[in-house]
TrEMBL record:
Pfam families: Cas_Cas5d. Keywords: Antiviral defense. It comes from the Bacteria. InterPro entries: CRISPR-assoc_prot_Cas5, CRISPR-assoc_prot_Cas5_N. One of its GO terms (biological process) is defense response to virus. This is CRISPR-associated protein Cas5h. The lineage of its organism: Bacteria, Pseudomonadati, Thermodesulfobacteriota, Desulfobacteria, Desulfobacterales. Gene3D superfamilies: 3.30.70.2660. Signal peptide: none annotated. NCBIfam families: CRISPR_cas5 (TIGR02593).
Length: 291
């Protein structure tokens, strides 16, 4: 087991179930944490997504700062990458036709200067003029089509509703991670192979390795979250948030094994005492549930 502290000026953990709006989870889901660990180790997402053992770890999380969100509308120029494949294909098609036309002209010029062409070459020369003219017509049409496609402008700006986390900071405890020995060494030396960010590449993040001790106890308190929503003794002066998050990713960013998780920035009182991990570190003592 190991612990790291992560923080950033901004963050966003997009809910993959949202379509028209970029809504953010208040905490990094297990799938995002897995991506952060992979960034430290230098594992490409296509590799760990297709590793059936990678997400077998469990994690717990402590919010060391209250969750603050900012919602706003941001005007985007219509996606300039949309239709790029059509443009690239048009350019490639024009290039192929142009090369074919040039090859015919060069072959005709070469054979006309040849003193003793073969019968096959003479047959080619007899029809070369028509072939070159046809190829030139095809090139001109392809060029017109390419110019038409490339000349299309951008559509009007499109407002996108976004939700950002302000000054997010978390303690993350990891248990039974496949590459635990390798990553602890890198975390202690503050090394990372890929860019480390808070859910979105716009928001670079920092991290630090946290020394801690842990022991199993029985407690009726949970810090930050629990997956046992029906066992909570809800209190009127506390604010609870329920999220539905994936705990595993696979294939082409396909999310699996969703869980309902109740989050609270104050200690969560449970109806009865149950086994829990008691974590002691410089940030405090926490009763953590792993998922």
């Amino acid at each position: 087991m190991f612990c790291l502290k992560i923080w950033s000026r901004f963050g966003a953990f997009r809910d993959p179930l949202t379509i028209t709006q970029n809504l953010s989870f208040p905490i990094p889901p297990k799938t995002t944490v897995g991506g952060m660990l992979a960034a430290v180790l230098g594992i490409d997402y296509s590799d760990y997504f297709n590793d059936p053992e990678y997400f077998n770890f469990s994690y717990s999380l402590i919010m060391t700062r209250p969750i603050r969100k900012k919602s706003f509308a941001q005007n985007y120029v219509a996606d300039y990458t949309k239709g790029s494949e059509i443009k690239f294909n048009a350019i490639a098609d024009y290039g192929k036709k142009q090369n074919k036309y040039k090859a015919l002209v060069e072959k005709q010029t070469f054979l006309e200067e040849k003193k003793e062409p073969t019968k096959a070459e003479e047959r080619f020369l007899s029809t070369a003029g028509d072939k070159i003219q046809t190829a030139k017509t095809v090139v001109d049409k392809s060029m017109d089509k390419c110019a038409q496609i490339m000349g299309k402008g951008f559509r009007s700006p499109k407002p996108i509703f976004r939700e950002l986390l302000m000054d997010p900071e978390y303690l993350i405890f990891i248990k039974d991670f496949k590459y635990e020995k390798q990553i602890i060494s890198k975390l202690k030396n503050h090394e990372t192979s890929f860019s480390f960010y808070m859910g979105n590449s716009e928001f670079p993040a920092n991290y630090g390795f946290i020394h801690h001790t842990c022991k199993k106890i029985k407690s009726d308190t949970r810090h930050s979250f629990t997956a046992k929503g029906t066992d909570i003794q809800f209190e009127a002066d506390k604010k609870y948030t329920t999220v539905f998050m994936a705990t595993r990713s696979c294939g082409q960013r396909e999310y699996r094994n969703y869980q309902h998780i109740v989050i609270c920035d104050n200690p969560i009182l449970m109806k009865k005492e149950t086994p829990v991990y008691c974590m002691d570190c410089r940030e405090g003592q926490f009763h953590c549930e792993f998922i």
